[in-house]
Here is the input.
Amino acid sequence: MDSLAPHEITVMLLALGVLLGTARLLGELAQRLHQPAVLGEILAGILLGPTVLGTLAPPCNALLFPKHGANAITLDGIATLAVVLFLLVAGMEVDLSTVWRRGKVALKVGTAGILVPLALGFLAAWIVPQALGRQAEADPLLFALFLGTALSISALPVIAKTLMDLDLYRSDLGMVIVSAAIFNDLIGWIVFAVILGLMGTATGHAISIPLTIGLILGFAAVMLTAGRWLVHAVLPYLQAYAHWPGGVLSFALTLALFGAALTEWIGIHAIFGSFLVGVAVGDSSHLREQTRTIINDFVSFIFAPVFFASIGLKVNFATHFDAPLVLTVLAIACAGKLAGATLGARWGGMPARDAWAVGFGMNARGAMEIILGLLALEAGVIRQRLFVALVIMALVTSMMSGPAMQIILQLRKPWRLLKAFSSKAFLRELAAVSRREAVHELTAAACAAGNLDENDVESAVWTREEAMPTGIGKGIALPHARLPGLREPLVAVGISEAGIDFDAPDGEPAHGIFLILTPQEDPGAQLKIAAELSHLFHDRQMLAKVLRVKNFAEFLALMKSATPPQPASPAA
Amino acid sequence: MDSLAPHEITVMLLALGVLLGTARLLGELAQRLHQPAVLGEILAGILLGPTVLGTLAPPCNALLFPKHGANAITLDGIATLAVVLFLLVAGMEVDLSTVWRRGKVALKVGTAGILVPLALGFLAAWIVPQALGRQAEADPLLFALFLGTALSISALPVIAKTLMDLDLYRSDLGMVIVSAAIFNDLIGWIVFAVILGLMGTATGHAISIPLTIGLILGFAAVMLTAGRWLVHAVLPYLQAYAHWPGGVLSFALTLALFGAALTEWIGIHAIFGSFLVGVAVGDSSHLREQTRTIINDFVSFIFAPVFFASIGLKVNFATHFDAPLVLTVLAIACAGKLAGATLGARWGGMPARDAWAVGFGMNARGAMEIILGLLALEAGVIRQRLFVALVIMALVTSMMSGPAMQIILQLRKPWRLLKAFSSKAFLRELAAVSRREAVHELTAAACAAGNLDENDVESAVWTREEAMPTGIGKGIALPHARLPGLREPLVAVGISEAGIDFDAPDGEPAHGIFLILTPQEDPGAQLKIAAELSHLFHDRQMLAKVLRVKNFAEFLALMKSATPPQPASPAA
Here is the structure.
C-alpha cells in the first residue's frame, strides 16, 4: 500500500504548521488594521511561495512545498478538503428566511447587482479580450462568460463582517445588503456551476452539456427544497438519539463530503456541492448554536487559512503582476457592481445616499472571487496574469468597502468596550484607600494613557462623584466624566483587594473601579459603557475572576471571553 | 505542480465521506450497546477494507480505497494528520495536577501498573517468541521491548469514559484510577518513544541511538517544564490580543503540527510530539472551556473516526486472525495489568475490593494500544497476525472494564434522566383539564410504556398527589410515586398548552407535567430526578422551548442539549 515515508510525513506536518501559523498571524495583523483576514492569509502564501521565499531562498521553498511527488499531492488533497469545508461554512451562513423577509428590495438589489456586472464583464471580455488577458487558444465565449460571472459574485462573509464592524448588521440598511448578497451568492454560484459544467464538457468531460446542466440545476433544486426539508426533519432525531453535538457534526460533514463528491463527479467543482449542503444544513432551525460554532470556528481558523495561504503557493504574484490589467479589471469590477447594486437599491425605493452605501457594500468580493479565479486557472480558462489581477481586485474591493460606507453614511467609528481599556490605564492594585484617592490615582493613569490634562479631568470626575457617589453595588464603582475634546472613550481600571467605599446602595466596598471618560459630544457613550459594565458584573463570579487576574493581558482576555464573541469567518 | 485530477478528487471526497459516515454510525451503535465507540469505528474499517468489502466486492473496494497512486497517498496523509490531532486531544486530557493531588497511591498504582505488565510481556516475548508471533528476522530485544510496552499502556480516554458511565469519575476510587492512568500514559509513551527511537536507528535512521534518546527525553522534559510554562504565559496574550477563540485554536494546532514534525524528524513518530504539546496546552488554567470543546469535538467526531476506520483498511482481519495467538496475547495482557495495578493499589493501602476495581479499570487498552501496534507494524517490528491480536486484545480489555468494575463494586446501573423518558410515555398535548385527569392520562401512558398495572400506579400517584399537590411553580408539576418491583426510573411527560392547576405556590397553572415513577428500593432516585427537572426548568425559557416541540424526538433533543454534554472522545 502506498504511504508517506517518514521524511515526507515530517515535511507535510512542518509545511502545514508553517502555512497555518503564518496565515493566522498575518490574518490577525490584517484584522488589527481593520482589513479582511483573507488579505493576510493570502499574503502568507505569497511570502512562503514562489513570489518571495522561492526567490530569496529557493531550497527552503523547495523543501517545504515541493512541486512534485507525494508532498505536493497530499497538500493539494488537504487544500481541496479545506476549501470544501470552507464552502460548507459559507453555505451555512446563507439564511434564506432573511431574503424572504426583506423581499422585494433585496431581490432588486440582488438581481441588478448580478446582471449589470455580468453584462459589463461579458461585453468587455467579448470586445477587448486581449486587454483582459485572454489567451489566443481560450474559447472566447467561455472566457467572456467566466469573467462576467467572476465580477458579479459578492462575498457574503466579507460583507457580513464589514457590516458588523460598522454596527450596521442589524440595521435595515444592513439587512438589505446581507439579503441581497445571499441572493447574489446563491444565483451567482449556480450560474458559475453551469459555466464550470460547460468548461468541463469543453475540456472533454464525459457527460454531455445538457445532461451536465440538467444535473447541476436538478441537484441545486433538490438540495434547496427536499434536501433542506429532509435535513430539518432528521436533525432532531440525530440530536435525540446520537451523541450531541457529535452526531450532528459528523452528519453535516459527511453530507458535505458526499455533496462535494457528487458535484465533482458531475464535472463542476466539489465546492458547489458542499456549499449547497451548507445552505440546507444551516437553514434548519434545529441546528443548535453550539454545533454551528464548532464547525464554524474550526473551519474558519484552521482549514480556511490553510486553503487561502495555499493559493499563494501556486502562482508567482511578482512575475505575473500586470499593472494595466489589474487596473482594468478593478475598474470594470467596481463600475459594474457599483452601478448594478446602487441602481437596484434606487429601483427598490431607497434614498440615494443609502443606495450608494448598498453599492459599496455589495462591491466587496473577498474570498469567493479568489476561489472562482483559482478554479478557472486550474481549468485553463484564464492564465496567471489574469488570476493575479482577480485576486488583487477581490482584495482591493473588500478593503474599500468599509471605509467607503463609513464616509457615505457619515458614520462615527463605533466604539467597543474592549478598545476603551489600555494597559497604561490598568492598575492591578490600587494604593488608594478612599474614594478621593482612588479617583486621583485612576485619573492620573487615564491621563497618562490618553495625554489629557490631569487637573481638569480630576476636577470634572470629582465634582461628579461628590454630587452623587458612583458605587453601583456588587463591589463595582463607575466614576465618570464627559470631557470636551476627547476623541474616543477611555476606561481606566483599578482593582482593590481591600475594597474602597464608594457609597454603594448595598453598602459593599468597591473592588473593581472603572473610571469612564467619554467625549462631551457623544452623550450616549457613557451610558452605553456603564450599562455594558454593569451587565458584565451582574454575575458576581465575574468580579471574583477579575480579582484573580495578574496583569492587563489576563484582564483583557477575561473581558474578551465574557463579551459576546466576534463573528468567526476570518476570511471576512 | 503535481495535483489531484478531478477523478481523484471525487474518489478522495467519496472515500472520506464513506469512512466518516460508516465509522460514526457504527461508533454510535457501539455506544448504544455500552461499548467503546472505537470498537464501532474500527469495525467500519474492517467492513470497508480488505476483510469484508475487498472480499465481497473487490471493485468497490479498489475504487474507493486504491492501494497505489495519489489517492492512497492522500488518504495516508489525512489519516496521519488525524492521528496527530487525536493525540493532541489525548494529551489535553492529561491533567498533571490531578496526579499530584492523588500523590502516592496514584504513583504506586501507576508504577506497578507499568512495571509488571512490561516485565511480563518482555519475558514472554523473550522466552516464547514464536508463540507470540515474532518473525525470524525481527530483532529479539526490540520485539520483547515493544511487546512489554504495548501491554503496559492504559487508554486514558476509554478509562475516563467508563468511569463517567458508572458515576465513579469524581469518586475517590475514580480519581485514583484516572491519575494512575495519566501517570501511566505519560511514562508509557515516553518509554515507547525511546523504543521507537531504537527501532528507527535499528532500521537505519540517520541519528545515533544515544542522540535519539537524548533528544526524546530532552524534548519531553522541555515540553513538560519550560514548554508548559511558556504556553501558560502566552495564552492570556493570545486571548487578549488575537481573535477569541480563534487565536488559541490556531496556536494549539500550529504548535501540535510543529511538535509532531519535530518528533517525526527525531525518528520517533509524529504523534509523540503532538501528545506532549497537548499536555502542555491542556494543562494551562488559561485555556477556556470553549476552546477545549471546539478542538475536542471536532477532532473526536471527525478526525478520530476517520483515523480508526483507516486502520481496518490496511489489514485483512480475517486471514490474519490467529485464535491461539489472540488468546495468548489477551491472557498475558490481562494477567500483567491486573496483577500490576491491583498490587499497586494494595501497596497504596486500598482495600482488596477497591484494588481489584482499580485493576480492571486500568486494564482497558482501547485506542492507544491500537496506535502503538500500527506504528510497530509500519516499522516492521511486528507482522499482521500479531497486529490483529493486539487490536482484538485492546478492544476486549476495553469492553470488559466497565462490567467487571460494576460486578466487583456491586454497583447499581446509574440512572440517567434522559433514559427515563420514552416515546410511549410522551403526550404532546394532554386532553386533561384537571389534575385528576392529567394523573390518569399520564399514568396510563407510563404503564403502557413500562408494562405496569395501571390501577395500582394510579392510586399510588393520586394518593400522594392528594396528600400534597405537586405543582412546583413556573408552570411545572412533578407528580410521583415509588413503586415496588419497578426496575428503573420512568418519567412520563405531558404538555398542556392551556395549563392545568396543580396548586403551585406561585398560583400558575402547569404546562409541563412530569410523572416520576421510581423503584421503592431506591429512595434517592425520585429526589434526584425531581431536583434535576426543577433545575432544568429554573430558567423559564426552557418551558417555552418545550411548548414549541412537535414530537418526542424534538423533546429529547432539547433535553439533551440542555443537560451537561456527555464527554466527547468517541474513542472512549
User: Anything to note?
Assistant: Confidence is low (pLDDT under 50) at residues 566-572 of chain A.
